[in-house]
Write a structure and sequence with these properties.
Layout: E1 30-35, E2 68-72, E3 75-79, E4 85-88, H1 103-119, H2 129-142, H3 162-174, H4 178-191, H5 219-234, H6 239-262, H7 286-313, H8 317-342, H9 373-385, E5 405-406, H10 407-419, H11 423-435, E6 446-447, E7 453-454, H12 460-483, E8 503-506
Parallel strand pairs: 1-3
Antiparallel strand pairs: 2-3, 4-8, 5-6, 6-7
Helix pairs in contact: 2-12, 3-4, 3-5, 3-12, 4-5, 4-6, 5-6, 5-7, 6-7, 6-8, 7-8, 10-11, 10-12
Length: 508
């Protein structure tokens, strides 16, 4: 993350921990839906919890539709939950036998993916290395030619959500893969609407078409601006970065224009819009307004970084930076004022003058914002209200009581804790996520009341959030090592060496 450039609000403390400032071969297309079941049946082992032996009547039953995704020379393919799986070691590339028509292409693909991982870092403490490595492989597997990032590899998830894609771009930037992060940003710029807004999701073909009538989702502009600022801060300075920036400038300007257009110049409230709950809204939600607040702050941070390099960039970015800074500051005052007026008095609920909180309170804490004691208290309360039987979190306190934990919200709270300096709490959430992966090692979207993975895996948003949480733990360890003359923690970021062709077998 970029270091905050604004005056800090009162210190945030989660569990008494003081928050820290920040420390500084061919790809693929979308292939057929599922690897055919057969070969040897893969028995899915349900992860048991301390819950009751019989399913309570109110709890939902959801099937696991995919245990992971793999790469083949023909593209990205979903793997069903009962499918035997063999991959080249250290990769998500489906194993092929010598002599097979696609074997040589598969070997090259596996070598390329190992090399890609080795270019960056696998973040986090050593005990999370397998989860982190798999999350990286899954993001790489879900990233198609042209920068489209699939939310998941099957069914209604085989589209690109601007929110999920933005989080993936930040995770890729933080783990040493700025080229792929830029690809994601360029795809989003390509599909952005003429008025600067984003639809809820897009077809991954780059046409800008949508699969349904979910309509505009305003938080996409905030996430896009945030992702661009993070990418620019992490990417190596030079002509490649500035050339990409030059191509992104119209879309970045459009995103800020869109936020300006929907923000009431008196109240600072944006128009009502669906957020990560993805339901139609008649009033402003914390999920929307907090993302837009992050976006206008990120626009200023990006503008400051661009201004530093503008004299040598040749992009004409200097005047752009001044304009983004001026307008971003004005919008920040308006939107932040609306948060304090409409949401703060009631303890940061999901909707103004409401009572029930949701996971969006995390967007007002590090690494997204400086936070405050009041926001931290709301975060603590929301975590209790959203807790589900298996130990994860629901999207909000008012979410249906179906017993299902959602991994994106659980990983979001792990990220918030890690970025706030609460390593103990972060690792509790990360341990839970690690324990509820599929048999293939991927992070699912949901976990049932009794601990079984459900819905789809991998989920790109969860993978990105986990990587960001682990990167924050690394930053905290690095800062501790730099400031303490007595304790020097072991290096957490794991460099991945290239490996020879081999086989990793997932057995039931």
């Amino acid at each position: 993350m970029l270091e905050r450039r604004r005056t800090s609000v009162p210190s945030l403390r989660l569990r008494g921990v003081v928050p820290r400032s920040r420390v500084g071969a061919g790809r693929r297309t979308l292939a057929g839906p599922t690897v055919a079941a057969g070969v040897i049946a893969l028995a899915m082992v349900a992860l048991s919890t301390s819950g009751p032996a019989a399913k309570p009547v109110a709890y939902a039953e959801r099937a696991l539709r995919s245990q992971t995704a793999v790469l083949t020379p023909g593209g990205t393919v979903s793997v069903g939950p009962a499918t035997a799986l063999e991959r080249f070691v250290g990769t998500n590339v489906l194993l092929t036998e010598e002599g097979a028509a696609t074997h040589q292409a598969s070997v090259l693909l596996a070598s390329a993916q190992r090399g890609w991982v080795a270019e960056g870092t696998v973040p986090g403490p050593a005990r999370y290395e397998d989860m982190a490595r798999q999350a990286l492989l899954d993001l790489d597997t879900l990233l198609l030619d042209g920068g489209a990032l699939l939310a998941a590899p099957i069914g209604a998830w085989r589209y690109t959500w601007p929110r999920d894609a933005s989080f993936a771009a930040v995770a890729l930037s933080r783990t040493g893969h700025p080229v792929q992060a830029a690809d994601v940003l360029m795809f989003l710029a390509q599909v952005q609407e003429p008025d600067g807004t984003f639809q809820a999701r897009y077809l991954p073909d780059g046409s800008g078409d949508v699969p349904d009538d979910r309509g505009t989702q305003l938080d996409g502009d905030g996430w896009f601006l945030w992702a661009a600022a993070e990418w620019y801060a992490q990417a190596p300075a030079g002509r490649a970065r500035e050339a990409t920036l030059a191509e992104l400038l119209p879309a970045l300007t459009g995103a800020l224009d869109a936020i300006d257009a929907v923000t009431d110049p008196v109240t600072g409230l944006p128009d009502p819009s669906p957020d990560y709950w993805e339901v139609r809204e008649d009033s402003v939600t914390l999920g929307s307004i907090s993302a837009l607040l992050l976006g206008v702050r990120s626009a200023q941070e990006l503008a400051a970084d661009v201004a530093t390099s503008a004299p040598s960039s040749g992009t004409g970015a200097s005047s752009w930076s001044r304009d983004m800074t001026r307008r971003g500051a004005r919008l920040e005052r308006l939107i932040d004022g609306a948060v304090q007026t409409a949401f703060a008095p009631d303890g940061y609920p999901r909707r103004a003058e409401g009572e029930e909180r949701d996971a969006a309170v995390a967007f007002l804490l590090p690494p997204f914002a400086d936070g405050s004691a009041e926001v931290a208290a709301a975060w603590e309360g929301a975590a209790v209200g959203m807790l589900r039987p298996a130990g994860g979190l629901a999207p909000g306190e008012g979410w249906k009581q179906d017993g299902i934990s959602w991994t994106p919200q659980t990983a979001l709270f792990a990220l918030t804790a890690a970025a706030s300096g609460d390593a103990v709490r972060a690792e509790e959430w990360l341990d839970w996520l690690d324990a509820h992966r599929t048999a293939a090692g991927s992070l699912p979207e949901k976990v049932l009341w009794d601990g079984r993975p459900a819905a789809v895996a991998p989920l790109a948003w969860t993978a990105a959030l986990v990587l960001l949480a682990l990167a924050e733990l690394d930053d905290a360890a690095a800062q501790a090592a730099a400031t303490s003359p007595f304790v020097v923690p072991a290096l957490n970021g794991v460099r991945v060496a290239g490996a020879g062709a081999g086989v990793v077998r997932v057995a039931g």
